[in-house]
Automatic annotation (TrEMBL):
Membrane spanning stretches: none
Upper classification of the organism: unclassified sequences, metagenomes, ecological metagenomes
GO terms, molecular function: ATP binding; phosphorelay sensor kinase activity
InterPro entries: GAF (IPR003018), GAF-like_dom_sf (IPR029016), HATPase_C_sf (IPR036890), HATPase_dom (IPR003594), His_kinase_dom (IPR005467), HisK_dim/P_dom (IPR003661), HisK_dim/P_sf (IPR036097), PAS-like_dom_sf (IPR035965)
Pfam family, one: HisKA
Keyword ATP-binding (UniProt): yes
Native source organism of the sequence: marine sediment metagenome
Gene3D superfamilies: 1.10.287.130, 3.30.450.40, Histidine kinase-like ATPase, C-terminal domain, PAS domain
Domain Histidine kinase intervals: 430-636
Keywords: ATP-binding, Coiled coil, Kinase, Nucleotide-binding, Phosphoprotein, Transferase, Two-component regulatory system
ATP-binding in keyword set: yes
Official protein name in the record: Histidine kinase domain-containing protein
Coiled coil region boundaries: 61-88
SUPFAM superfamilies membership: ATPase domain of HSP90 chaperone/DNA topoisomerase II/histidine kinase, GAF domain-like, Homodimeric domain of signal transducing histidine kinase, PYP-like sensor domain (PAS domain)
């Protein structure tokens, strides 16, 4: 009986196995095939035990035992092969049942989530720490309900203590009837994609900030702040050089960064406590962009010839591509002078390129933290440098346009003033001519009468009054004539200090009479200029006389002569009563005067003379404190 049952069941097992293998001939033994075989073997084994027959009796036949053993080995090989494949594809896999319990995972997800024990049998929430579990947003639950699983993106910390951005995607697993029995959760490493998105958003924000800034100094500070901010590129230090086309050199313009490790730690602590985002830092730049540090001062003194092939910054501009220096001490592209000045063994040079034309270069390093400078970081910095170059070009264009507008406005004001002076001068000349003839007659008759001896002293006094007023009118007419027809300056090489010295000498007695103390501060080695000495003396006399007359009770008068930006500056400072804002506004208007006996042409004539010499006059005054008249004249 036992032998018959054994034979029957042996044939039964063999037929079923042969049927399954034949059905899946040429195919990889996946989990569904293996599970069918397991079910068959399990059923037959249970049936035999129920009949009291040991499993081993089923396979007395040596050939059948050998086949089953080979089959088991193939089964184990396929299982290991499948496990190896799922472990090396770089994606975390987790199989869930309808109760969201884990029935299988691959090694990748266990490593990423730093699981110490097998998660099989646990709820998926226990390993994913997902807040959407049991809600309508749960991707696995949505899939079981026939919906489409949404993607969940989150950050995890791997067992190597690295931050990783991952995306969890739910995929349905159906049987032959199309029913969803399981859900496969795919966990994909999206860190690099997230970094790219972050960099693109960062570039967008920085680009918007730069394009909204047209003040060049502020823009340069903003650019280097972005390069050094931990919320952006995070370099320790950065320098910016711009091309000077006129001299074919690179000039250091600005540097941002600490000058020592102690200063670096202090700055980073202050920034972390004061600012919570890049926007906070950029907003602060609206209030301050002047940097007075040794590192910045050193950078502004640096000048490199673009034709010097030894300098790495010049090479970066010529080649129009970034240069990463990883060992400055042994890199032939880095000169000893630049290496010693910078002090960093690893740095990067990134060109500022716009419309295929170089504008300058950014140099950045991590001298204090020692963080490596990666290719990805340099690539992003290069894209940022392109935006920065465009912003710099816009700022420079705006500055040139603003300068031209200022020149145009100044020229227009001069033209209007010249036209006004011409009209007034023409009218003054006519009036002077018409008055001069009767005035001469009046003066002549008055002088004739003064020769007679009158017994009545009142008549003699009246004649003297007429003579004095005639003299005063003659002076006024002479001033008007000078104003209406200013002579063309006859310029020669003169020493302005000598002309001022001579003018002050002429006024010595007058100053003493008015109790005015004169102080002279002349810078040594003032260069000669082309000027008309007579007209210069006239200007100095006009301004000095006005200054003395503003101090009726005495005071201090200071004359300073210095050189400023290829110009000679003359400051005449008094401690008089000063001027009101209204008077200061009209000081150069013809015939405007605050003096009871003034003609109001002195300052107008003085301004005209200085402008004819290519210079300018600026007046600053405060009521009750005094006035400063500043004259600028170009050097030869």
């Amino acid at each position: 009986m036992n032998n018959e049952l054994s034979t029957f069941n042996s044939e039964k097992v063999t037929n079923k196995l042969r049927s399954i293998l034949s059905e899946h001939k040429g195919m990889v033994l996946d989990e569904s095939i293996l599970s069918k075989i397991d079910v068959i073997c399990g059923n037959i084994e249970a049936e035999l035990k129920k009949e009291g027959i040991e499993t081993a009796m089923l396979f007395k036949d040596a050939e059948q035992s050998k086949k089953l053993k080979n089959f088991e080995e193939r089964r184990q090989q396929e299982r290991r092969k499948n496990d190896n494949i799922t472990d090396v594809i770089g994606i975390g896999l987790c199989l869930l049942d309808k109760d969201l319990e884990i029935i299988w995972t691959n090694k990748t997800i266990c490593d990423w989530l730093d699981l110490k024990e097998s998660p099989v049998g646990s709820c998926c929430h226990d390993i994913y720490h997902c807040s959407e579990v049991g809600t309508e947003n749960c991707p696995a639950m949505n899939v079981f309900k026939g919906g489409s699983g949404r993607i969940i993106e989150t950050w995890i910390t791997t067992k190597e203590k690295k931050r990783m951005c991952v995306q969890h995607v739910a995929t349905p697993i159906t049987d032959e009837r199309g029913d969803i029995n399981n859900v496969l959760m795919l966990t994909i490493d999206a860190t690099e994609s997230e970094k790219i998105v972050h960099r693109l958003l960062l570039l967008q924000k920085l680009g918007e900030a730069m394009q909204g800034t047209l003040h060049l100094d502020k823009l340069l500070h903003l650019i280097l702040t972005c390069v050094t901010s931990g919320y952006a590129f995070g370099f320790n230090r950065a320098m910016l050089f711009l091309i000077n086309k006129e001299h074919d050199v690179l000039n250091g313009k600005l540097a941002v960064g600490p000058s020592s490790p102690e200063e670096a730690n202090q700055i980073w602590q202050d920034i972390s406590s004061k600012y919570t985002s890049l926007k906070d830092i950029l907003d602060e730049l609206d209030h301050s962009y002047n940097i007075d540090t040794p590192f910045n001062t050193m950078t502004k003194l640096m000048v490199f010839s673009l034709s010097d092939g030894r300098e790495v910054v010049a090479s970066c501009v010529r080649e129009k591509k970034p240069i990463i220096v990883k060992d400055a001490a042994n890199d032939p592209r880095v000169t000893e002078e630049f290496r010693n000045t910078l002090g960093a063994n690893q740095f990067v040079c990134v060109p500022l390129i716009t419309k295929d034309e170089p504008k300058g270069v950014i140099v950045a390093d991590n001298i204090y933290t020692g963080e490596p400078i990666t290719e990805d970081l340099v690539n992003t910095l290069t894209m940022f440098a392109g935006q920065a170059a465009l912003a710099i070009e816009n700022a420079e264009t705006y500055k040139r346009l603003a300068d031209k507008m200022n020149q145009l406005t100044e020229t227009q004001h001069k033209l209007i003033r010249s036209e006004k002076l011409a009209i007034i001068g023409s009218m003054a000349s006519y009036v002077a001519h018409e008055i001069r003839n009767p005035l001469v007659n009046i003066g002549g008759f008055a002088k004739s009468l003064s020769r007679f001896k009158f017994t009545d002293q009142k008549i003699k006094a009246n004649i003297d009054i007429i003579l004095d007023e005639v003299k005063r009118l003659e002076i006024i007419l002479n001033n008007i004539t000078d104003f209406s027809k200013p002579p063309i300056p006859e310029k020669i090489n003169v020493q302005i200090c000598e002309i001022m010295e001579n003018t002050c000498t002429l006024m010595e007695n007058y100053l003493q009479e008015r109790y005015v103390n004169l102080y002279k501060e002349f810078e040594p080695d003032i260069p000669q200029i082309l000027a008309d000495p007579t007209q210069m003396k006239q200007v100095f006399l006009n301004i000095l006389m006005n200054a003395v007359e503003s101090m009726p009770n005495g005071g201090d008068l200071t004359v300073k002569i210095t050189t400023v930006n290829k110009s000679i500056k003359i400051d005449i400072i008094d401690t008089g009563k000063g001027m009101t804002k209204e008077s200061l506004k009209n000081i150069f208007e013809p015939f405007f005067t605050t003096k009871p006996h003034g003609t109001g042409v002195g300052m107008a004539v003085s301004l005209k003379i200085i402008e004819d010499h290519g210079g300018n006059i600026n007046a600053e005054s405060e009521w009750g404190k005094g006035t400063t008249m500043s004259l600028t004249l170009p050097t030869n």
